[in-house]
Amino acid sequence: MRPPDMSTKAGIVYAPHELCTSFDVRHRIIVLFAVFLLALIGETVAMEPKPIPVIFDTDIGTDIDDTWALALILASPELDLKLVVTDSGDTMERARITAKFLEASGRDDVPIGVGIPGGKIPLPQAPWAQDYNLDSYRGEIHKDGVGALIDVIRRSDEEVVLIVVGPAPNISEALQRDPSIAGKARVVAMSGSVDKGYNSNPEPAPEYNVRASVAGSQAMYGAGWNLLIAPLDTAGQVKLKGELYRRLLGSDAPMVHALLDNYRVWAPEFRWGRYDPAIESSTLYDALAVALAYDEALCTIEDLKLEVTDDGFTRRKASGNPVRAALGWPDGGREAFEQFLVERLTSYR
Which helix (H) or strand (E) segment is 349 a member of? Predict the structure, then answer.
């Protein structure tokens, strides 16, 4: 019979103080290992870049490319969509189109701002959303979209990226109300025509977004913030056809279904071109601006100075505003971007 002050474990006899010492050592090892794991997890999290806060300023409803651009934002984990603001024309109807698409894509948590209304502009996408009740949208609807845009920038602890893919009256108004936002935001815009025009024409053209709001574009180009443009030189070349487009047609992703349904309604209504949704996409001008918000290696970017003329041209001029412009593609770059676009859209759930 063993003495009462001894303990056994696995056939070994221990004194009580030895048991305590053994327990303390094991406990310390476990604690140290836990601390190591937490540090490792923390380091891994720190190595992963945080999503970039973005505001999407759009004239969605006229050309279908805005909807493709919004889809790419939703499918990009690099981006954190804080607000969509509708721009020019019937901005309330554009908000309805935006809300229906966001809801169909499972993102009816995204706030929508109603931008400054303008003149009558055709909305070929309106029939797609005519049965949608904007009051049923779960996310917040800001009647003062410009005020909401300013608030998001002011309150952010990080630099906000404004992705501007329409005429820029909202941007001009925001700068008038609070010029300080230029110090807390950068802009990536589908805007301008530097060395090439529509359909890769060697003659530059007054690009639609600039021509539709010359004053807004002049304010945006002259604000002094970091401005990167995706002009017609590159953005005007993005189009999906062949096997890439067929992958979209065969996709079971709800967002892609909503996108293609929208496209099928829009195509016969669009006045400025003929497109067949069964064969290929329209020109997807705006998608490139979205991707450049987080991957500038997609294009050849040049620092230059541009003047926004009163007739809507963006011309090189020594006394112009400093701008960064995506003027070309690396070898195979356009094809790689189109493939990237399809992969992102079809994989989003």
Answer: none
pLDDT value for 228: 98
Q: Give φ, ψ of 301 to 5 degrees.
A: -110, 135
Give the residue ranges of DSSP H helices in 116-168. 145-155
pLDDT attached to residue 45: 44
Cα 63 to Cα 180, 247, 283: the distances in Å are 32, 22, 9
Distances (CA, A) of 69 to 49, 63, 154, 242, 265: 22, 11, 25, 20, 18
Assigned architecture for domain 52-347: Alpha-Beta Complex (3.90)
All residue ranges of the chain with pLDDT < 50 are: 1-4, 6-16, 18-20, 44-46
The answer to whether the pTM exceeds 0.90 is: no
The alpha carbon of 85 is separated from its chain's Cα centroid by a whole number of angstroms, namely 12
Q: How would you classify the pairing of strands 12-14 and 7-9?
A: antiparallel
